[in-house]
């Protein structure tokens, strides 16, 4: 079996967590302007977690594989910010500029890494996991 085999399914638990994370991100965006660390750093930590749980609503795959995809999305956005800065591009839409950001920063990459680690740890210690499924956070369910 391939290392990152996946199949489609629906996971209500993941939808619930993704909804809570999305609501938290909206609150941070709306009211976190006075606390730059909250909006700039903690929001990025939660963003990777949101991508992971958003994907895991419909994709059943190994935790590590989905978490790496979520980390990759964050890093790709950061790379896009760097390319836009170097080429003097700007995003005209203010909402999209807030969501994607406009300034590349290594602290953002660190935040994405922390979000990745938190997902892996949370999924590893999730209630209902047996010892067999905890080995190296191998899978979400048996195939």
Give the topology, please:
Blueprint (H helix, E strand, L loop, with lengths): L5 E3 L3 H20 L4 H21 L2 E3 L1 H24 L7 H7 L5 H19 L6 H4 L9
Antiparallel strand pairs: 1-2
Helix pairs in contact: 1-2, 2-3, 2-5, 3-5
Please describe the structure with a list of short key phrases separated by commas or semicolons.
143 residues, two-stranded antiparallel sheet, 4% strand, globular
Mean pLDDT value: 85
List the helices and strands in order.
EHHEHHHH
Approximately how much helix is present in the residues? 55-70%
Taken from the alpha-carbon principal axes, the silhouette is: globular
Put simply, the count of helices is: 6
**Largest sheet: number of strands, sense, barrel closure:** 2 strands, antiparallel
Structurally, the number of domains stands at 1
The first-to-last residue Cα distance is 10 Å
Class from secondary-structure proportions: mainly alpha
For the CA atoms, what is the radius of gyration? 16 Å
Task: Provide a quick synopsis of the model.
With 143 residues, this protein is mostly helical. The chain has helices spanning 12-31, 36-56, 63-86, 94-100, 106-124, 131-134; strands spanning 6-8, 59-61. The protein has one domain.
Question: What do you see in this structure?
Answer:
The chain is mainly alpha-helical and about 140 residues long. The protein has one domain. It contains 6 helices and 2 strands; from the N terminus they run E-H-H-E-H-H-H-H.
